[in-house]
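Data card: per-record layout.
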Amino acid sequence: MKLAVAFLFISLAEACAQNIAVQVGGKAVGSGTTLNFESGNGVIQSCHPDSGSRITCMSAFDSAVMAGQESIHGTHNYCVSVNKSTSYACRISNSSLMAYNTGMTFVLMVDVPCDAQCSLNLHGLGPVSIKRSDGVTDPGGTLAAGQPQWVFYDGKVFRLMGGGGGGSRVTDDRDRDVLGRRFIAGMDSMTYARAVQLETTAGDVHKISTSNAVGNATINATTAGLPGQHMWVIVLNDQISAKTVSFGNNFKSAGPLMGSPGKSATLQFISDGTAWYEVARTTNL
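The structure for this 285-residue chain is written out next.
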C-alpha cells in the first residue's frame, strides 16, 4: 500500500514537472504540457531536435507574402553600365531585383553618352526608355559618359533628375541661347472666357485668342507680380467681329483694348509689386 501511494506521488510530481508556463511580453498566456508554434501570415516556424533533450525553433519570413528589401529596391543605389552601348544594362543589387517599382531612385553612370534615344535594363528585367525630367523628351546629350545622374522610375520610364553636366554638348536652340546669353521668355497660352485668370507665374508672355461665342472679356492677373517684373500679353482677335478686352484685377492699363477682326495686339506691363502698369501697346498687327 505504501509503495502504491509513493508511486502515485512520483507520477503526480512528474506530471507537474512537465507543465510549461508560457508568457508573451512578460505576461502569462497559459500553461500546458505541449507548446505549439503556429505560423502567422508571412512568418514560418521550423523546429528540430537539438543536443540532449532540447528542441530548437527558428522563425523565418515567407517571401511570397512579405516583400524583402531585394524585391522592393535592392541593396544599392548605384548603377554602372559598361557595355559600350546606349542600351544600358547594369545591376543595383548583389542579388535579384524582382520588378521595376514606381518611385525607385538610384545613381546611374554610363560609359557612352546618350546623344538621342537610350534605354536601361536593370537585372535583365527588360529595357525601359530613359527620358529627361519631363518624362517625354529624349536625353539628347544630357546623359554624358562618366557623369553620374540621379534617375527616377515613374512607372513607365526612367527620368533623369539632374546631377550630370552633360559636358559641353549643345542640344537645342534654348541651349544655344543660354550659351549666347540670350533670354527666351516662357510662353503661356490662356483659354478665352468672359473672365480670364492670367497666372503671372506661368510665364512672361501670355497669349489668348478671342472667341465669337464668348464675346467681350476681362483679363485679371492672379498676383500683382514682383517689383521690376515684366510681362507681355498677345491678343488675337477672331475673324468674325471686333472684341473688347478689358484689364481688371491687379492691372493699371491705358483702358480697354478695342480689337479688329483678324488683327492682333501686343501689350507690355511692368510691376512695382502692387500692380501691373501698362508701358506699351501695339494694335492692328
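Known properties of this structure: The radius of gyration is 36 Å. Residues 69-160 form one domain.

See the next section for split statistics.
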